[in-house]
Amino acid sequence: MEDMIGVTASAAGGGLFGLLGTALGRVAGFFEKRQAQAHERARWSHETALIELQMQADQQETEAELALTDAAGRWAGLEASMQAEAAIAASYRWVDAVRALTRPALTVLLWAIAAMVYASASPAGRSEIVDTATFAATAATLWWFGDRGPARERR
Asked: Which of 39, 61, 115, 128 is most buried when burial is the number of CB atoms within 10 A of its CB?
């Protein structure tokens, strides 16, 4: 009987020790999993930061390319304008002078018309007429002279 009790005690002790080992293994697995998840979160944060930096670099590159394209287009337009001007054969001096003064004279004339319309229009009709004349004068000024100025920096 003593042997039976000894065998039973040994079996129960081994079983309890096995259960304790399993429980400790599960607890250790829980902490390992938590550590692995923390590592993954840190890795994802790092990858997110890298992707954001790459997006900023791509955006800056795109802005630089747009600025370069804009400048190249302005130079190409100026070059074409100068070539067209050079292709016109020389004529009488007064003809060349009239041709050179066409844009400035038309601009001054449009602004003078806008001022006269404003001064002579009745208060009721002034708004519509002045809006139209101002639109024409502003469009002409910016179209004729707007592309000649220095390029502004993009923000």
From this structure: 115
